[in-house]
Design goal:
alpha+beta, 6 strands, 2 helices
Length: 131
C-alpha cells in the first residue's frame, strides 16, 4: 500500500465551518475570518494570520511571524492546518517553527514558480517528517 501523498492546497480540517458535521466544500475560502488568529506550530507560537491574507490565493494563509524571525511574512498552504480553535482564536499547524522559517518566500510576481517551490518544499517535509 502506497502512502497518501500530502496535498498542501486543500483544507484537511473542517472545524472552520459553521456546521462542521455537514459535508463541506473544503476549497471554499474560510480563511478571511481567521485574520488576527495566532498561529501555533508544533513547537510553539509563530505569529498571527496577517491582515494581508486576502492578497494571497485562497489555499494559503499569510502569517506575520513577528519578531522571532525579524517580522518576516510567510505563506503557509492550508493543508498544514491541523486544527482551528475559534474559542482561543488559534490556528494550529503541523509543522515546526524551523520548517516554516525555511519555507520559500512568497513572490506575488512569480506565482506559478512560488507554488511549485512551496509544493515541493512541503511535500518533502511531509515525506521526511510526517505528522
Amino acid at each position: 500500500m502506497q502512502p497518501v501523498p500530502f496535498v498542501p492546497w486543500v483544507w484537511r480540517d473542517p472545524s472552520w465551518a459553521d456546521e462542521p458535521d455537514q459535508d463541506q466544500d473544503l476549497a471554499d475560502r474560510p480563511d478571511t475570518g481567521l485574520i488576527g488568529y495566532e498561529v501555533e506550530a508544533t513547537d510553539g507560537g509563530i505569529g498571527k494570520i496577517d491582515q494581508d491574507n486576502a492578497k494571497v490565493p485562497h489555499d494559503c494563509l499569510m502569517v506575520d511571524t513577528g519578531p522571532w524571525i525579524f517580522g518576516r511574512k510567510v505563506v503557509l498552504p492550508v493543508g498544514t492546518v491541523r486544527h482551528v480553535d475559534h474559542a482561543e482564536r488559534k490556528v494550529h499547524v503541523d509543522r515546526t517553527k524551523e520548517q516554516i522559517k525555511n519555507a520559500p518566500e512568497y513572490d506575488a510576481d512569480d506565482h506559478e514558480n512560488y507554488r511549485k517551490r512551496t509544493d515541493e518544499y512541503y511535500a518533502e517535509s511531509y515525506r521526511t517528517n510526517p505528522r
